[in-house]
Amino acid sequence: xxxxxxxxxxxxxxxxxxxxxxxxxxxxxxxxxxxxxxxxxxxxxxxxxxxxxxxxxxxxxxxxxxxxxxxxxxxxxxxxxxxxxxxxxxxxxxxxxxxxxxxxxxxxxxxxxxxxxxxxxxxxxxxxxxxxxxxxxxxxxxxxxxxxxxxxxxxxxxxxxxxxxxxxxxxxxxxxxxxxxxxxxxxxxxxxxxxxxxxxxxxxxxxxxxxxxxxxxxxxxxxxxxxxxxxxxxxxxxxxxxxxxxxxxxxxxxxxxxxxxxxxxxxxxxxxxxxxxxxxxxxxxxxxxxxxxxxxxxxxxxxxx
Length: 305
Description:
The protein is α+β, with helices and mostly antiparallel strands. It has helices spanning 4-14, 68-78, 98-107, 177-185, 190-197, 233-236, 278-282, 286-295, and strands at 111-117, 123-128, 131-133, 146-156, 162-171, 202-206, 214-220, 225-231, 248-254, 275-277.
């Protein structure tokens, strides 16, 4: 659950006046969302939700990036240790209502982009938290094309509380993108997650490095988080042969006490032809990988051979 100090820090960073509830009470929303500014509170059965770990960048709606003052607030709140996964920006799956979550995202500058209809009738309420702009003419993109985009989908349960948060954050192909991405999202790299949550249930590495860099999956099913990282050693602690052209973070955050299991939701989606347990992929057992990264977050492992 989000601690009261975190909600207060969001208010302070954004110059808002908010009544902060106690840690045992529902959070005070910043306002009532309307049909034009945020999603309605229409629930759907969680059991119908399925997801993959493959972001579809080309389908994202073009929206302006956050204003500079909102960028500062977003960076500070993302790095706060008062809200550890599955909590995200003060939204705790299983206890934060869709309306409260909408208001928290709007307070930090999030732009509501509408409902996403998926298979089996699932509904996701999507927001964007893009940061940075290309300069006019850079790689043919206009000033409102972000250097780093983030798409946040809220998936409610049948009581109207957020049950799942589906996040994709990624860079554009630009020399300035990696540093900007890490300013906001470095907390969710492999070392950061080990610091926040300790050892996961399982760690997988992509079967081989590619020109896109190295990839790692951290399965925190007991805590309610499933994380895929693609990038350089700074993200995955796997030495890449060359600098990754793009950095990608995919997180599925959910209420671990929900009756449907992660397996029934198809959230693991670990294809054995593409993903290998880290001990087989790197030639080092999982506990040794965890111990080394915890002791030195900058360490990276070479693939054998």
